[in-house]
Amino acid sequence: MTKIIPEDKARQGHWGWHALRILIAGLLLAFIAWAAVEIYGEMIKSQATSEQTVPQAPATGQKPTQGG
């Protein structure tokens, strides 16, 4: 004789608040990591551009002469 089990009791588990909290926490941690990487990338980019700039003499509007 086969045993009849209701559908809600035959499942291995159900999605509850615990699983939802874990999923939301993982999503928040991913956003925090993404923001940290973005901030770090902007810091590196601004440092690299400030180191590469070479101060130039102001333009006087005169062409340089050759030979003295």
Q: Roughly how many Å apart are the termini?
A: 113 Å
Largest sheet geometry:
none
Number of strands: 0
**Overall pLDDT confidence:** 81
Write the layout of secondary structure elements.
Elements (H helix, E strand, L loop, with lengths): L6 H4 L6 H36 L16
Written description of the protein model:
With 68 residues, the chain is mainly alpha-helical. The chain is built from two helices and no strands. The relative contact order is 0.05. The model has no long low-confidence stretch (mean pLDDT 81).
What's the gist of this structure?
With 68 residues, the chain is an all-alpha fold. Helix content is 59%, strand content 0%.
Identify the notable features of this structure and list them briefly.
68 residues; mainly alpha; 0% strand
